[in-house]
Amino acid sequence: MFEKLWRNSVRDMDPYIPGKSIEELKREQGIVEITRLGSNENPIGPSPKAIIAMKKAVEESHLYPDSTYLDLRSKLGELDGLDPEQYVVANGADNIIKLIGNAYINPSDEVVYCTPTFTAYKSIVLLMGGIPVEVPSCANYDIDLEAMYNAINEKTKLVVIVNPNNPTGTIANKEELRSFLNRIPEHVIVVLDEAYIDYVETKDYPTGIDFIKEGFSVISIRTFSKLYGLAGIRVGYAVASKELLLPVQRVREVFSCNRVASAGAIAALEDKEHKLKVLKENKSEKVRLVEGLRRLGYEVTNSYTNFLFVNMLRDTTEISTTLFRMGLIIRPCAPWGLSTHARITVGTKEQNDKLIYALQNLDEAAVKGC
Q1: pTM of this prediction exceeds 0.90
Q2: Residue 334: its pLDDT value, please?
Q3: CA torsion sign, 75 to 79 to 83 to 89?
């Protein structure tokens, strides 16, 4: 009845379909013990220091947060060697994506990105009346930077590179990335979504921070949801030159991050020991999980993240439905048009073993309807 009143650009958007939540699966299946390996969460959880800081901040939750988030921006600047004014803090990386879209995309502006990738970019481009220019990835799912460069024209406003990419876990070749940035015309801004960059172990791999220091027109997007295990409290940030962030600051909500999230993020940054623990476990368990999945005959793309992009050679929606009944959640890639692929988070040893065992007994479980 009211659809005719909708904003036109909203009508053109596909609704975002998040990974199934633990709470949702419990309601549907009546299962008490759920293992979620579909949302790329940190299975170890946040730093104990972050938990202490957040508990203390809860006691002050009757107070508004500092709307400038100077303490967090100063800590980030100290670690990165940048001015605190080169950061914008917000309610998760997805909020940053919206802010950048609000700040820069005019109707008919073109935004270039490689597919498959994080669907939030297409949504914000359509919402703002822009034109998504989707460039297919390479056959091995590497980001096709040359094809992206060839898609740039006088109407291009932004180029988005999700690096490492989601859902494929691949990264852009570092030499090609630098060459790409060197050729970008002055009227184009490059957005480097680096939500998973902390997991990349390739030696001397350049990040958005490096390119920003060199003066490139780059906005880096970072999050505390992955490595730092703070997905539930929603805190992310953008890094760029002060000039590039000016319009982002103008459209930012006054209190774009809550007091508890900010306190947790600062403490998480300070706990280097916990960070190393998470990276060490992810590295070793990723090797085990890849080996286990390949023994089952699945094709696994080399990943630089805390998740795997897996061709399971059959409809993964059906597979995930059976796994749901067994208390396991993975992410089918049907929303990206990849019906036989799934995105699977690297869990703990116990979680990964549970998944492999379930996949070994998948057909039997499907027959039983369990």
Answers
A1: yes
A2: 94
A3: negative
Q: Which domains does the chain have, with CATH numbers?
A: 7-36+273-368 (3.90.1150.10), 48-271 (3.40.640.10)
pLDDT attached to residue 210: 97
pLDDT at 368: 60
Which positions of the chain have pLDDT values less than 50? 367
What is the tens place of the pLDDT at every residue in 295-336? 999 999 999 999 999 999 999 999 999 999 999 999 999 999
CA-based nearest residue to 263, from 42, 75, 41, 44: 75
- Amino acid identity of residue 2, one-letter, is F
pLDDT at residue 11, rounded to an integer: 74
Residue 33's pLDDT is 79
In our burial notation (b when 16+ CB lie closer than 10 A, e otherwise), range 280-290 reads ebbeebbeebb
Three-state SS string over the chain comes to: CCHHHCCHHHHHCCCCCCCCCHHHHHHHHCCCCCEECCCCCCCCCCCHHHHHHHHHHHCCCCCCCCCCCHHHHHHHHHHHCCCHHHEEEECCHHHHHHHHHHHHCCCCCEEEEEECCCCHHHHHHHHCCCEEEEEECCCCCCCCHHHHHHCCCCCEEEEEEECCCCCCCCCCCHHHHHHHHHHCCCCCEEEEECCCHHHCCCCCCCCHHHHHHCCCCEEEEEECCCCCCCCCCCCEEEECCHHHHHHHHHHCCCCCCCHHHHHHHHHHHHCHHHHHHHHHHHHHHHHHHHHHHHHCCCEEECCCCCEEEEECCCCHHHHHHHHHHCCEECEECHHHCCCCEEEEECCCHHHHHHHHHHHHCHHHHHHHCC
Q: What is the pLDDT of residue 4?
A: 73
* Rounded Cα–Cα distance for residues 36 and 351 (Å): 9
Neighbours of 114 (CB within 10 A): 27
Distance CA 65, CA 193 (A): 26
